């Protein structure tokens, strides 16, 4: 995936029984962030940072969507526990994660395994990828995405 490419379409179950689909968001900017796992320290911080800026993202006409391989049921608990209002999509098959190139081989303490590379894709109103952040470091990331969305 590169900036300027068409964003791969998706329609996935989400928290709260909703369906999260890119087609339903056409005409809006979308900050699609991929994270490894619900209720882990980095992922929780990232979700809380994006959630805290939801009014500012709305003013920038941008919808923030989080996606991980966790189940919709896991997303429900995560959203409830941290009072998150943003949509969370469940990609248990990892098809969308793979399409965006964020389901990758990782390594920890010499052990290799497959996992989500924390990444964010800013998608414009026409469904094209405007900006990509890979190997995201959480502190300040949501603010950086907001600034890019506002400038788009």
What would you note in describing this structure?
The protein has helices at 41-52, 54-59, 72-82, 95-99, 141-151, and strands spanning 11-13, 19-21, 29-34, 62-68, 88-90, 103-108, 111-116, 119-123, 129-133. It starts with 10 loop residues before the first strand and ends with a helix. The radius of gyration is 14 Å and the shape is globular. The chain is 30% helix and 29% strand. The mean pLDDT is 95. It is an alpha/beta fold and 152 residues long.
Describe the secondary structure blueprint for this structure:
Blueprint: E1 11-13, E2 19-21, E3 29-34, H1 41-52, H2 54-59, E4 62-68, H3 72-82, E5 88-90, H4 95-99, E6 103-108, E7 111-116, E8 119-123, E9 129-133, H5 141-151
Parallel strand pairs: 3-4, 4-5
Antiparallel strand pairs: 1-2, 3-8, 6-7, 8-9
Query: Could you estimate the helical fraction of the residues in percent?
Result: 25-40%
Tell me the radius of gyration: 14 Å
Strand order of the largest sheet: 5-4-3-8-9
Kindly report the average pLDDT value: 95
**Major beta-sheet overview:** 5 strands, mixed
In angstroms, what separates the terminal alpha carbons?
Answer: 19 Å
Structural class: alpha/beta
Strand content: 25-35%
Broad shape: globular
């Amino acid at each position: 995936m590169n900036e300027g490419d068409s964003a791969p379409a998706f329609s996935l179950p989400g928290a709260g029984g909703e369906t999260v689909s890119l087609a339903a968001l056409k005409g809006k900017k979308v900050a699609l962030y991929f994270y490894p796992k619900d209720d882990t320290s980095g992922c929780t911080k990232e979700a809380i940072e994006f959630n805290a800026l939801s009014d500012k993202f709305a003013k920038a006409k941008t919808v923030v969507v989080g996606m991980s391989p966790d189940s919709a049921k896991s997303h429900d608990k995560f959203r409830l526990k941290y009072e998150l209002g943003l949509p969370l999509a469940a990609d248990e098959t990892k098809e969308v994660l793979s399409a965006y190139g964020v389901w990758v081989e990782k390594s920890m303490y010499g052990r290799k395994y497959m996992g989500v590379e924390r990444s964010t894709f800013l998608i414009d109103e026409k469904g094209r990828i405007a900006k990509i952040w890979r190997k995201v470091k959480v502190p300040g990331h949501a603010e950086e995405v907001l600034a890019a969305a506002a400038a788009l």
